[in-house]
Design a protein that fits this description.
With 348 residues, the protein is an alpha+beta fold. Helix content is 34%, strand content 23%. The chain starts with 5 loop residues before the first helix and ends in a 10-residue tail after the last helix.
Amino acid sequence: MDQPRPRELLGALDARPGAAGRRPPHPDNAERVFALLGAQYLAGQTGAYLMARTGTAPVAFPVAGPVMLPALAAGGKAVRGAIGADGMIPYLLAAATRGESAVIAERLIGPKTSEVPEFQPLLRGPGIAGWVLTMDAGHTVRSHATFICEELLAHFIMIVKGNQKGLFEKLDALDWASVPVTHKTAGTGHGRRETRTIQVMDASADLGFPHAVQAFLIERYTIRKIRRRKKNSRKYTTKEIRTAVAVPGITSLSAREAAPEHLAAYVRGHWAIENKVHWVRDVTFREDASQIKAGSRPRIMATLRNLAIGLIRQAGHAKIAATIRRIRNDPSLLLAILGLQPGPETAS
């Protein structure tokens, strides 16, 4: 198939040279637009656009049985190459869909604060009734559980660590030895072998945590080999390092709504926001090395990177860097990702 010429590409973008009032934008114009744009407004509109493209609606209640529901993962990232108006590195809290990892909401974290105050404003925009929300342990707070279940009409899966000391001690004191392992997975990757197990039980009322219906314990057993060279020697020795980690958690999902394998998948899938969004922005788009450092522009660029990642994944392309290289040689792929086609005036 013939590749579109530059004129055809501009025509599909409605920026044909010579068309009345429609010419390719000058780089200086992009700078001026960035200066005038409201960063939060752009993030909100971009998230709403990607959310609409997911084609996922609120989930009807009650569900017929245990099934994987639509899910969002919330997590934060520092834009290390930028400097905010307060002289601090900007920090963004985002929510990304499970699977495609499209960022559908994002908020700037204020100076001298944590992610917790921005969590609820982050999620008030998209309609996610019946969805499942996963988050870092820092968001395991009672107000979030109430907000998710009573205002959003959604579900939560929360990991419990030291920030909820009393809750952690109650979960740790449960008789897990009498609870069977109901789901187990094993795999290899990144130079290690890993086995993961999950045990699930009904949450008792004395946990004192709102809407907690089930408690679970995930254990990870990891074996990795490392090579070391003895001092003043050219010989290497191989050593196996074994680690075991136990992570307790709670969820508002009942046994009728989520089986153990579903809970395990939600927890493991949470880290996709780090691997498929934050890591890609850092490594593929080199966000931390960007020379755009001041004002609202670094945040606007982060939003545009989120948009690019979301569009590429929603078009069915899993490898972002490889897809971008293909776009350079095949502009028709860009049109397909954007859902555009050359107009009739540029077809000749």
